[in-house]
Amino acid sequence: MKLGVFTVLYQNLPFEEALDKLAVMGVEAVEFGTGNYPGNSHCNPDELLESPEKLRAFQRAIEDRGLMISALSCHGNPLHPNKEAAAEAHDVWRKTVLLAERLGVDVVNGFSGCPGDHAEAKYPNWITCSWPPEYSEALDWQWKEAVLPYWKEESKFAQTHGIKIAFEMHPGFVVYNPETLLKLREHAGGNIGANFDPSHLIWQGIDPVEAIKKLGRENAIFHFHAKDTYMDKANVSVNGVLDTKHYSKILDRSWTFRSVGYGQNEKLWKDMVSTLRAVDYDYVLSIEHEDMLASIDEGLGKAIGLLKEVLFKEKLTEMWWA
Fold it and tell me: At what angle do helices 83-103 and 52-63 cross, to 10 degrees?
């Protein structure tokens, strides 16, 4: 496995300066945002698709530093009930697929999206329970009328261009756990899989190791985000895990995103890496930094250090048993 970074954390740095910084830190792969929620500060599809010269310079800058692109990421909501918002997210998605094909990158990361609860809705509605019965009816409508028709078509589009779709299982969207991911994969196409981010699973009470096994048996893990979550047991014991307070309310929240090793212990990260190997995932661990208690350099440095140690120990174990 290779160690990578989602470059959005250095979006305020010029492109090549960000690459220099990451190369010095020992990173082997980079993941670029192409628009929607991640922005496109380092990788603008409009510019790169329109100019072969800019595309070649972009590729050369990465290759000259000994790096590779693990994925392009365009996390948005193409199912948004606001037609303008949906069209914008869709446009970025389609251009990202075309750019990935040009770059020889076969994974595009994103969100499944979330529609409203009926055809005339104004806002997305993430449904989390089956009662009262209108909730189940709305969820059924979402899948049959919005989710499956859209992603069946887009799965075919991606497949035509040799692209695998890696969904981040994220609460707030229709794909938020292994079951919903596999449901969409079953109905919309085998080129749909996971950008496996344990941070969103941990706070839901999902064991990431068991989730890796579940998806790995289906060959449904295409990419991996290395991000951690700290669970505040005192707050969970009173309020449970569903929490809408702002992320900055760290002392009051039930859970908080942290740098790798600062939410869960090293043992869990070792177990996740070992299980990834067991299901034949041998691609990239892409670090995503969203730790409000650590500076970017500090949080990223700690994550790189821990994951390098985990990967090194895994390599020694592999050599021992070979």
Answer: 70
∠ CA 191-195-201 to the nearest 5 degrees?
Answer: 130
> How far apart (Å, rounded) are the C-alpha atoms in residues 144 and 118?
11
Structure tokens at 175: 């794909």
How high is the pLDDT of residue 320? 55
Quote the longest CA-to-CA distance of the chain: 61
**Coil, strand or helix: which one is 46?**
helix
User: What are the tens digits of pLDDT across the range 79-94?
Assistant: 999 999 999 999 999 9
pLDDT of residue 312: 81
As a whole number of angstroms, the distance between CA 273 and CA 291 comes to 21
Quote the pLDDT of residue 23. Answer: 97
Residue 249's contacts (CB-CB under 8 Å, 6 or more residues apart) are none
Beta bridge partner(s), residue 257: 229
pLDDT of residue 314: 72
Q: Please answer whether residues 155 and 189 qualify as being in contact, where contact means their C-beta atoms are separated by less than 8 angstroms.
A: yes
Element (H, E) at 162: none
Measure the CA–CA gap between 3 and 31, rounded to whole angstroms.
Answer: 11
Asked if 114 and 127 count as a contact pair (C-beta separation under 8 A), the reply is no
Give the separation between CA 49 and CA 36, rounded to whole angstroms: 17
The per-residue pLDDT for range 251-284, each reduced to its tens digit, is 999 999 999 999 999 999 999 999 999 999 999 9
pTM above 0.85, yes or no: yes
Q: How far apart are CA 57 and CA 149, in angstroms?
A: 38
Measure CA 3 to chain center: 15
Q: What are the backbone dihedrals phi and psi of residue 42, each rounded to the nearest 5 degrees, phi first?
A: -105, -10
Give the mean pLDDT of the chain.
Answer: 96
Hey, which residues does 192 pair with through a beta bridge?
A: 165
The pLDDT assigned to 313 comes to 75
The pair of three-digit structure tokens given for residue 169, joined into one six-digit string: 């299982």
